[in-house]
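Lab manual, section 2.4: Encoding a predicted structure.

Procedure: take the sequence of the chain (335 residues), apply the prediction step described in section 2.3, and record the output as structure tokens. A sample record is shown.
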Amino acid sequence: MSRSYRVAILGATGAVGKELIELLATRNFPLADLKLLASPRSAGTTLSFKGETLRVESTDTSSFQAIDLVLASAGGNTSKALAPRAVASGAIVIDNSSAYRMDPNVPLIIPEVNPQEVHQHQGIIANPNCTTILMNVVVWPLHQVQPIKRIVASTYQSASGAGAKAMAEVISQSRDVLDGKQPNPEVFPYPLAFNLFLHNSPMTATGYCEEELKMINETRKIFGDSSIRITATCVRVPILRAHSEALNLEFHQPLSADKAKMLLQQAPGVRLVEDWQNNYFPMPIEASGLDEVLVGRIRQDLSHDCGLDLWLSGDQIRKGAALNAVQIAELLISS
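Recorded output:
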């Protein structure tokens, strides 16, 4: 008889937490028990799981007793405070925050890229940033055949990256604008409806915001190659769900667009979407709710013999967060 696991979701009432609940159900993760944890203000609310109504509990020092696995998506400060407690209680933590991603003792895992690292953990496994995941799922199969020298990434990031409240804010702001009212930003620093702005993560002394540095540093760690040159410009756009990215890739040696398409058609977690006659390529509205990262418009960079350009869209809440975490959990229990 196969084993079942006692799982806790930390941050269960957030957008990613709710997606984790759905994925555990639809992927038939072997559960002996599911505990839903959140902040005191959410305690007592209920969420549905496989037709059952589960009560959300307030997180405290005893929350992780008799828990095998914690799927955490409650923010960096919460993870720093609670992940060590969970590990001390005997649980393995898969953390979706930035708290442990660059810790040299914590593996940073994308199952389609570096699954072999999953058992190198000391109780905590980090889930990469959403834009990093979407980019790396597409770039990795190309990098394996023809090593990457440089990546120039421009992101078009939806409101979902800032959570459920941010998504609701874009909807309400859109109504306000259409009604001739002034949109009122609360979650974001500026109105996002009918607007865009550079990513709202903290700016650093380098001139890059934290989101851009995450893409750079996390990719190097996941690929195990600190020599890859990476630059990024991250932008918030008025899209509810699913991020998009324009990537310019420079290889050490030429890689044809046709070969890249063939490799991506065979790559796990990727779906090639290209209809050149109708100018039909990946769109966030079609990527929303999908497990795969959509990729297309793969073409030779006319400015560089070793360059390719491509475009991708992927669901930030799903593959960019919750699905990747559940896939890590599946790796853990499969071997």
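Check your result against the sample. The first strand starts at residue 5 and ends at 10.
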